[in-house]
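The records we work with from here on pair a chain with its fold. Taken together, the tokens spell out the fold as the letters spell out the chain. To see the layout at work, look at the sequence and tokens printed below.
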Amino acid sequence: MRLVKQSARSRPRVSLILVDWSVRESFHLLHYLARQNVERDSFEVIVVEYYSRVSEAVRKFESQVDTWLVLDMPETCYYHKHLMYNAGIFFSRGEICVICDSDAMVREGFVRAILDEFDRTPEIVLHLDQFRNSRRDLYPFSYPTFEDVTGRGCVNNAGGQTKGIQCKEDTIHNRNYGACMCARREDLIAIGGADEHLDYLGHICGPYDMTFRLVNLGRREKWHQTEYLYHTWHPGQAGEDNYLGPHDGRHVSTTALDALSSGRVLPLIENENILALRLPAAGGFVVSPRYAADWSRASLSPDPLRKDVGSAAEIWRGFVIERRGEAYVGYPVIARQPAFSALRNSLEVQAPALHELKERLIGSMRAPMRLALPWLIAVSYVLEAIGLAVFLVRTRWRRVVVAAQT
């Protein structure tokens, strides 16, 4: 990991997180951020590159970039946006984190609109929808007017609003949940940041994973009714040769939908750096070395229990099931918790076939462990709840102290 540049802004209110995995041709959002009608010190811009490229498209607007982070992930690794989100959250200094498209246009009141919404209703997770234009003659990007983007070729303009904002049914599929998501940094840390589970590798991912878990935390999902992003066509805008995790047939992650419906707050796989902030513990941002193998392109296959991948591939009746080579391995979910990780080796069960493994998981556990396991699971959830409560109390108290000093 390399820091090409690190922010010197001490107290920005907003941290804009822009991600790239060596694919972006343009970062023209930075052109529009230079024209905002708020003081420049009120927001910072963080660019996170997944691989090793120091992008010339970013260099063009380097004066507008406050922190520029290159993760140096190996080229053999498939991209994982959620790792980039977490890196951005970790290095952010703002009260509000904004994850949005880097190749979109925004009006001069974009940052102000976000600040105003959080000033009015702090306990929210805010989304902004996006006008999208399909005209090929606007590529390469040549700074068209906003009227050009919302006019001929715009696929979702409905009388000055996006069709998604006007739609009141099935908003998950009719609004662009990946265009722009805004949430308080302390809330994002409280839910464990973006989930780095294998299911979110590649194309089926997005900040809505955090939106749904923030809703479970008690934050209200809100969509801005008058402020938008504007996007023009470019090649590969929907991705090419995408690796797809589990989705509902319309490219919304079923893992994220399951989190929403189950009420789960914490991620299945929590970034170790965000965990350190949540608990908290000292240390700089470190990319887990296991990801180079877990997210290797060579390991990806149509098998839902992917070969030679160490991250959890299936959760079944309180057990994690993984595929290792030609065998299947299972162990209780509780063993993923740091306090119980030492038990993992003694609790692992192996079998050559999936159905046989499930039979063994139920039948081969010793009676004392079968009796103790529900209590261990209950204890782990209690510890998570206590940790979350302590974090929220501490951050609320810090906010009161800061307010009293200013």
